[in-house]
Specification:
Length: 295
């Protein structure tokens, strides 16, 4: 089974983006991402630090605002509005999940669609659905880069996606059913009957359900390509930290049946930030009347 590693693709994507940021800067266009983090969620703090670091590596300005968990909805909306109106800021990212009782949907919909680099706003999802995408949500976009880089055929192929979230499964299914991907897509979720049987039809199986190693050998059609988006931490007394990260797929278990698969960690994980940076660069280009940057 071929190992589809993220490091074979995304460092090069980031290098191209750094060059583009430098080119834009020479023509007087700066690129800046504003990130809002509310509360103390440890995973969110790690994600935000990692976005800040990547911005620095690419020459993208980052403005990170850390707010206490007690921040009110009105205060948060006011800050988003301030960033919407600030011409120096090209992209706005509110780190989710937000602490209760903040209304996540209202906050995400308050972000100007022109600066919605996560592509969570219904306006941008509507454009994507109509085949007119300006931004593409980062993780589905990352998966498309794996398919493109490895020239994995999708046209006329049967693709099964596990998980129907707005951040991954649903936009992934829409994109792959559109041109130029032209796949026949089945979108599965927790109410899907005979899940393993559905999955065994897939030429390409994409899992994003957050269930550690639920996808076993029995789910795989011989020769299928498997993309594992899941990130799950499980207890492991043999590991120095007492736990380790696994995907939604039993990577070792499927090795005798699948033709290629992404490992976890080391696969899709690093793609999301790279594609976020791509969206931020494009937001700056669009704001200055330029077309999307070709990767
Ligand atoms: N950068 C990255 O690599 C990245 C980015 C995003 C997400 N992720 C990971 O991807 C996984 C999914 O994330 P998400 O935000 O899309 O998840 P989510 O919002 O929790 O949605 C999970 C989806 O999986 C479905 N599901 C749950 N259990 C299932 C089962 N036993 N059989 C079939 N379907 C099942 C749910 O069905 P219902 O709709 O019926 O509830 C739902 O559609 C998580 O492990 C997350 O950490 C990774």
């Amino acid at each position: 089974m071929q190992r589809l590693a993220g490091k074979d693709i995304f460092p090069q994507v980031q290098a191209k983006l750094a060059e583009e940021v430098a080119r834009l800067s020479e023509s007087g266009i700066s690129v800046t991402l504003a990130v809002i983090l509310v509360g103390e969620d440890p995973a969110s703090q790690i994600y935000v630090a990692s976005k800040e670091r990547t911005c620095g590596e690419l020459g993208i300005g980052s403005l990170v605002t850390r707010l206490p968990a007690e921040t009110t909805q009105a205060e948060l909306l006011e800050l988003v509005q301030q960033y919407n109106e600030d011409p120096q800021i090209n992209g706005i990212l509110v780190q989710v999940p937000l602490p209760a009782p903040l209304d996540e949907d209202e906050v995400l919909q308050a972000i100007s669609p022109d600066k919605d680099v996560d592509c969570f706003h219904p306006y941008n999802l509507g454009l994507l659905t109509a085949g007119l995408a300006r931004f593409v949500p980062c993780t589905p976009f990352g998966v498309l880069q794996f398919l493109k880089h490895h020239q994995i055929p999708t046209s006329g192929k049967k693709i099964v996606i596990l998980g129907r979230s707005n951040i991954f499964g649903r936009p992934m299914s829409i994109l792959l059913s559109q041109k130029p991907w032209d796949a026949t897509v089945t979108l599965c979720h927790s109410r899907t009957q005979n899940l393993a049987e559905e999955c065994r039809q897939a030429d390409i199986l994409i899992a994003a359900i957050g269930k550690p190693m639920l996808v076993t050998k029995d789910f795989i059609k011989p020769g299928a390509v498997v993309i594992d988006v899941g990130i799950n931490r499980i207890a492991d007394p043999n590991h120095p930290k007492g736990s380790r990260v696994v995907g939604d797929v039993d990577y070792e278990g499927i090795a005798s049946v699948a033709s290629a698969a992404t490992p976890v960690p080391g696969g899709v994980g690093i793609s999301t930030i790279a594609m976020l940076m791509y969206n931020v660069v494009n937001a700056a280009r669009f704001a200055n009347g330029l077309e999307a940057f070709e990767l």
